[in-house]
Amino acid sequence: MSTINKVLIANRGEIALRVIRTCHEMGLNTVAVYSTADRDALHVRFADEAVCIGPPSSNESYLRPDRLIAAAEVTGADAIHPGYGFLSENPEFSQICTDHDVIFIGPKPETIRLMGKKSLAKETMEEAGVPVVPGSDGTIEDVDEARSIASEVGFPVMVKAASGGGGKGMRLVRDEGEFERAFTNARSEAQAAFGDGSLYIEKFVENPRHVEIQLLGDGKGNVMHFGERECSIQRRHQKLVEEAPSPIMTEDLRERMGEAAIRGAEAVNYAGAGTIEFLVGADRNFYFMEMNTRIQVEHPVTEEVTDTDLVEYQIRVAMGEEIETKAVSMEGHAIECRINAENPFTNFSPSPGTITAFHQPGGHGIRVDTAAYSSYQIPPTYDSMIAKLIVHAKTRQGAINKMRRALDEFVVEGIDTTIPFHQQLMADERFQAGDFDTRFLDSFSLAPREPAEEAA
Ligand code: MV4
Question: How far, CA to CA in Å, does 440 sit from each of 208, 234, 445?
Answer without folding.
Answer: 10, 8, 10
